[in-house]
């Protein structure tokens, strides 16, 4: 149906729907590849919710249709993710990016060569979060060394990561950035396990 009326497709996705439905929709509707043409418009939209949905939609479509055209969109999404780190208020970073972490891993599963660019995004996000947090030292440099670990070592690190005392203290307003830093670290480790170590 969508392929015969691209405008209807665009309208439906501009209105949006629960992101939990994306895997079913993208896999179940054969013509969803036409979304590649208007997803950049969603990424450029002024509303954060539409940008977020556009990123998730784009990654699921890319995963379903790993074409040369999809690689260009994938790089555009990573560029957008990185720029949003600087645009979004620091107290809104967790709410915006947390739902996107699973999609970032899916993108690198689809195109493993993009793992380095996604790593740079996660490092940038981690630095921004830690710079504004009431935190003790967080060893982000260890991220770059993880590519040299075996699959078993990475899995062991993931299972043991952030067990025990938090590295961040409560701020004066009661906020706690430890959760966000933990999510970034776990996402990065899973990215390595699923993309960098992919055989």
Question: Averaged pLDDT, please?
Answer: 80
How many DSSP-defined strands? 0
Biggest sheet layout: none
Radius of gyration of CA atoms, rounded to a whole number: 18 Å
Structural class: mainly alpha
Report helical residue fraction.
55-70%
Order of helices and strands: HHHHHHHHHHH
Low-confidence stretches: 136-141, 161-166, 169-175
Which overall shape is indicated by the principal axes computed on the Cα atoms?
A: globular
Distance between the termini: 38 Å
Q: Indicate the proportion of strand residues.
A: under 5%
Q: How many DSSP H or I helices?
A: 11
Overview of this protein structure:
The protein has 199 residues and is mostly helical. The protein has helices at residues 6-15, 22-28, 39-43, 48-64, 68-87, 93-97, 101-110, 115-132, 141-145, 151-160, 178-196. The protein is globular, with a radius of gyration of 18 Å. 28% of the residues are buried. Residues 136-141, 161-166 and 169-175 have low confidence and may be disordered.
